[in-house]
Amino acid sequence: MSSARVEAAALPEACRAPVEELVRILTELGGSNLLAVTVIAPGTWPLRSVAVFNDVDLNVLNALRHHGAKLGRRRLQAPLIMTPTYIDRSRDAFPLELLEIQTRGVCVLGEDHFAALTFDRRDVRLECEREFKRELITLRQGLLSAGDRSDLFGPLCEAALRQTAVILAGMLWLKNEPVPESPEGVVASASRVLGLPLGGLRAVAAPGADRNFMSFRAVYDDVHALSLQVDALAV
């Protein structure tokens, strides 16, 4: 793998140098054990990626952690570490996460281990239901943890937008609809396909939107409505 060429041409220009640095480090540390590197949703920061190894070697991961500060300065998250076997056996447990990599990932080194994945529709629907219910709990606990800090409504709403977009992508997949690249696009498409206004999520996605309790409540109401709809979704 050390002689493989990094296929960075498909990435936005701002991503190319950081990704090439990440691949260089992974290649030096992993050698022939490194099979592939995929960048998830290139152009969004911090950059997320998946490194696929033949086997997980904790010595390699221990060495990689010492590059954390350097990668952080490059606005790179630590890569997700997977193996081909782990990917295949996780299709029923984590279909939403793998679907996101499949639909929004760009393989920059080696073979794309996600392109040919198939998923059981029942597994996707079940994880959508589970994740919406988990998100409702997260929002409630986030509200309680905010205390008197109204400035925390912004991060809570933005995190909810990102997480909801991943789940909505799964619902669009179940409806055989294309998945837009941006969270804003996913929300807009899901609103049309599902027949829900999703005004709270749309407002959070708008530049310069207010971030207060009322906007938080509107987001919560959207997530709650989605949780009820996916609970009854036939597959």
Report, as a whole number of angstroms, the end-to-end distance: 41 Å
Integer tally of domains: 2
Strand elements, count: 4
Average pLDDT rating: 94
Give the % helix: 55-70%
Structure commentary:
This protein is an alpha+beta fold and 235 residues long. The protein folds into two domains: 13-110, 2-Layer Sandwich (Beta Polymerase, domain 2); 121-231. The protein has helices spanning 13-30, 58-65, 68-73, 84-89, 95-104, 121-146, 153-174, 183-194, 199-205, 213-231; strands at residues 34-40, 48-53, 80-82, 105-110. The chain has a four-stranded mixed beta sheet with strand order 3-2-1-4. A hairpin with a 7-residue loop joins β1 and β2 (48-53). α6 runs antiparallel to α7 (153-174), α7 (153-174) packs across α8 and α9 (199-205) packs across α10. The protein starts with 12 loop residues before the first helix and ends with a helix.
What's a quick, concise take on this entry?
This protein has 235 residues and is of the alpha+beta class. It has helices at 13-30, 58-65, 68-73, 84-89, 95-104, 121-146, 153-174, 183-194, 199-205, 213-231; strands at 34-40, 48-53, 80-82, 105-110.
